[in-house]
Amino acid sequence: MTDKRSVLLVAHTGRPGAVRSAQLVLDRLSEAGISARVLDSEAEDLHCAGVDVTPVCGAAAEGAEMVIVLGGDGTLLRAAELARPSGTPVLGVNLGHVGFLAEAERADLAATVDKVASRAYDVEERMTVDVIVRENGDVTQSGWALNEASVEKASRQRMLEVIAEIDGRPLSRWGCDGVVCATPTGSTAYAFSAGGPVVWPEVEALLVVPISAHALFARPMVVSPRSVVALELLPDTSGGVLWCDGRRQIEVPPGARIEVRRGAMPVRLARLHQTPFTDRLVTKFGLPVAGWRGRVRD
Fold first, then answer.
1. What is the pTM of this model?
2. If residue 190 lies in a helix (H) or strand (E), which one and from where to where?
3. How far apart, in whole angstroms, are the C-alpha atoms of residue 93 and residue 106?
4. Which residues are catalytic?
């Protein structure tokens, strides 16, 4: 006798259609003999009678086969926090706008659930970053991110003065609004808005992107995934704020040191399609490809 299959459903309850989409998912899972659970913070809004309710914590996805996410990339990042400790794959259904992390669109919702039911999906691992904050050499804070860890100025009136270091060697001093340290997955998020390069997800690398830096050398950089990137706030600068995926905030005082390295634990994403990343870029950004002829075939 096999263990009963279970799925955790996470939804952006404020998005139009999220409640209806959630009900469709739950009904279809039930028909397939798959139990579902929802978060206690969302249960009332989703009106899901008879569904298991779980607290919002690191064990929320424990024992689940998958986390199905209804929302945009922000909702998926929230779900990734719950799924990462147990290594549960996350499947995003886009109810938002661009939705780079999502695998399916709302119009395909029924077929998406059917593929989950028939286990017609693959799982890929996405690199994360681990971050620590040191004060006088001692670790005072830590965090992680799937997209990026960004150090930003805490005061609008003053620039952040930082010295960037790569693998134990000083690189440059920047007076800036901040610095984004991103994964390839995050290259189409904050790092992209800050002028960083688009990096294909299968590439393993760390991105360092200064934000509005007043310096001769302040280009976006791509470094080895084995590198350690450090940012030292000068003692006489204003304090900063460390954001992990734009969700988790850590206050960083003057003189502190932030170290960013490849995360010890990846986030696992469920994939239904083998759509090339190039096609995703074209679709999401509406890139002009009219006139493309392709390679000559024998």
1. 0.93
2. helix 190-193
3. 6
4. 73
